[in-house]
Design brief:
Blueprint: H1 3-35, H2 42-74, E1 90-93, E2 96-100, E3 105-109, E4 112-117, H3 122-127, E5 135-138, E6 141-148
Parallel strand pairs: 2-4
Antiparallel strand pairs: 1-2, 1-6, 3-4, 5-6
Length: 149
């Protein structure tokens, strides 16, 4: 399996874990809401139901965000090769290695550690279009591009 395929699969796993966690939280909140029986303290019951509804809404928003990440990731082809950094590229710099895909944090592979960054993030925007030998500055730090895969 290629490095890009490993990174892609880890990003996919990251998204799936977020989706599973949000779905489970939604189910738990809905179950808690239906299990809550109305007591003589009606206001307390209504407050509990409202809190469960807010929790469900929060988790639905997280699920929607995870779906957006999945859509963005599905637009990337792990097999694509370009001399300039594009979505799906691996960019090696003197200040870290980056995978331009989605914001998924640090990914560990047999080839080392890579930071998965979104092309829409400040760092991702700087990385887009760079090629071997280029450099750019971000937050008073200069990045020298060693290689674009």
């Amino acid at each position: 399996m290629t490095l890009k395929q490993q990174l892609y699969n880890q990003c996919l796993s990251y998204i799936q874990n977020r989706m599973d966690a949000a779905q489970q939280a939604i189910e738990d909140a809905q179950k808690a809401s239906t299990d809550d029986t109305k007591s003589s303290a009606g206001d307390k019951y209504e407050t509990g139901r409202e809190m469960m509804q807010q929790e469900t809404n929060r988790n639905m928003a997280q699920l929607n965000e995870a779906n957006k990440l999945k859509v963005a990731l599905n637009k990337i082809s792990p097999g694509i090769v370009s001399p300039k950094a594009i979505a799906g590229s691996v960019v090696l710099t003197d200040n870290g290695n980056f995978y331009l895909a989605i914001s998924a944090g640090l990914l560990n592979t047999s080839a080392g550690q890579y930071f998965a960054v979104s092309p829409a993030s400040p760092l991702g925007l700087k990385l887009l279009g760079v090629k071997e030998g280029d450099e750019f500055k971000l937050n008073d730090k200069t990045y020298h591009i060693k290689k674009v895969v």
